[in-house]
């Protein structure tokens, strides 16, 4: 098997290096040679890709693009980032020409500096920008780097459900074994303390994805698990400028943590991405510098954004209730979950594969018949647990007023259809 793999790679490299300089004839014999290799090889893709080729986002985003659909599925704002952030990006593009060039591998220095000082205060740590901060390609990049750096063949990775769906394939690609624990309520401080004590009792590293930390509603407070006693030394805290400044396309993320953990992430980073786009990092640095000056004041984006988005959330809750959907009121994030049990009992036989969870069939039905897209919640659960959580769908309310009005129109029509 190992020999097959080596031969396959050698053939591929030969094709790449020599192919362009060869005539048609030798190209054909090369193709034959490669074909022979393919036949000899049991499978072309690396074993770590087995079983992870299907991605629900690709499927549902494609469905939404095929019809006149209001997309409330994917988690991104469809309104502009704040002016100060846009101006910071414009400045980064049109100012110092050196911002067109590579910067430091582990982060643009003004960005690592402000992240260390800003989050150092929040996490109660004296953070060194060179040792405790790593800038990555979005929070996705941070997660991937963390899994690659810390998960070994056969390691158990405990994933709390519902989970951001990439945690499972990232664990598998690193050779780990996912173990799923379903969450019944939203995390409270007491529950976080319990998780923290279990981590310490069993010597477990905690990877905490806090990309929605500023989007907290109803006066609730975000609690970073790294601030709990004994947790800083074993926690990687992940953040995203995309979610922080409503600019998901910038793809700037970061990991904060102790040097003992971060040094291993730097090894992965320097052998994969090496460094992230300089101008986007400069814009994020300047945006954080601005926020640091306004911190906690009414002028702060981190204060204004949740207030505005709470209104979007409340708007959506009222609208969804009008057609018999039963939203669960969230205290944070971009999303709300709606119970569709009543639909499940009234229309149990929606089209779809026999083993397809009900929520997926319902979302496909809703896209086609009601022009609204949501995301089936079962995709955030492991396969054995999906059937238990197939009567919820997720809507994104991080949307412009015009999108919410378009949703209202679709729901109004739905309501009219319900009249006898
Ligand atoms: C929970 C969570 N973590 C991470 C990410 C990825 O963030 P980024 O766009 O910065 O890569 C997302 C994006 O939707 C998310 O919802």
Automatic annotation (TrEMBL):
Keywords: Aminotransferase, Pyridoxal phosphate, Transferase. The keyword Transferase applies. InterPro entries: Aminotransferase_I/II_large, Kynurenine-oxoglutarate_AT, PyrdxlP-dep_Trfase, PyrdxlP-dep_Trfase_major, PyrdxlP-dep_Trfase_small. GO terms for cellular component: mitochondrion. Residues 68-182, 186-407 form the Aminotransferase class I/classII large domain. Pathway: Amino-acid degradation; L-kynurenine degradation; kynurenate from L-kynurenine: step 1/2. It holds the Pfam family Aminotran_1_2. It catalyses: an S-substituted L-cysteine + H2O = a thiol + pyruvate + NH4(+); L-kynurenine + 2-oxoglutarate = kynurenate + L-glutamate + H2O. GO terms for molecular function: cysteine-S-conjugate beta-lyase activity; kynurenine-oxoglutarate transaminase activity; pyridoxal phosphate binding. Its cofactor is pyridoxal 5'-phosphate. The keyword Transferase applies. Belongs to the class-I pyridoxal-phosphate-dependent aminotransferase family. This is Kynurenine--oxoglutarate transaminase 1 isoform X3. It comes from Tursiops truncatus (Atlantic bottle-nosed dolphin).
């Amino acid at each position: 098997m190992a020999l097959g793999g080596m031969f396959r790679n050698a053939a591929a490299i030969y094709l790449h290096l020599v192919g362009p300089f060869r005539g048609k004839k030798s190209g054909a014999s090369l193709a034959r040679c490669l074909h022979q290799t393919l036949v000899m090889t049991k499978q072309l893709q690396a074993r770590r890709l087995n079983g992870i080729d299907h991605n629900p986002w690709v499927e549902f985003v494609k469905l939404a693009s095929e019809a006149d659909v209001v997309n409330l599925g994917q988690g991104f704002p469809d309104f502009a980032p704040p002016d100060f952030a846009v101006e910071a990006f414009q400045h980064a593009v049109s100012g110092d020409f050196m911002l067109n060039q590579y910067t430091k591998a582990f982060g643009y220095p003004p960005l690592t500096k402000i992240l260390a000082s800003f989050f150092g205060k929040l996490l109660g740590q004296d953070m060194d920008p060179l040792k405790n901060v790593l800038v990555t390609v979005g929070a996705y990049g941070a997660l991937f780097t963390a899994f690659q750096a810390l998960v070994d063949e056969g390691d158990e990775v405990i994933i709390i459900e519902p989970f951001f769906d990439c945690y499972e394939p990232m664990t598998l690609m690193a050779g780990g074994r996912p173990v799923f624990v379903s969450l019944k309520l939203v995390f409270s401080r007491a529950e976080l303390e319990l998780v923290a004590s279990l981590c310490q009792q069993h010597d477990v590293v905690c990877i905490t994805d806090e990309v929605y930390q500023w989007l907290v509603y109803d006066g609730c407070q975000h609690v970073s698990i790294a601030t709990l006693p004994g947790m800083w030394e074993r926690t990687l805290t992940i953040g995203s400028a995309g979610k922080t400044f409503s600019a998901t396309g910038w793809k700037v993320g970061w990991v904060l943590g102790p040097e003992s953990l971060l040094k291993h992430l730097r090894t992965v980073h320097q052998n994969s991405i090496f460094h992230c786009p300089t101008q986007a990092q400069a814009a994020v640095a300047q945006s954080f510098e601005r926020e640091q000056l306004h911190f906690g004041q009414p002028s702060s984006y981190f204060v204004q954004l949740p207030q505005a988005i709470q209104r979007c959330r409340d708007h959506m809750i009222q609208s969804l209730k009008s057609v018999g959907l039963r939203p669960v009121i969230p205290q944070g994030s971009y999303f709300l979950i709606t119970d569709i049990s009543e639909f499940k009992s009234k229309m149990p036989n929606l089209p779809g594969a026999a083993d397809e969870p009900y929520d997926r069939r319902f979302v496909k039905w809703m896209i086609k018949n009601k022009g609204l897209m949501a995301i089936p919640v079962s995709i955030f659960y492991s396969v054995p647990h999906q059937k238990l959580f197939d009567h919820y769908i997720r809507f994104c309310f991080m949307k412009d007023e015009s999108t919410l009005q378009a949703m209202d129109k679709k729901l109004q029509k739905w309501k009219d259809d319900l009249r006898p």
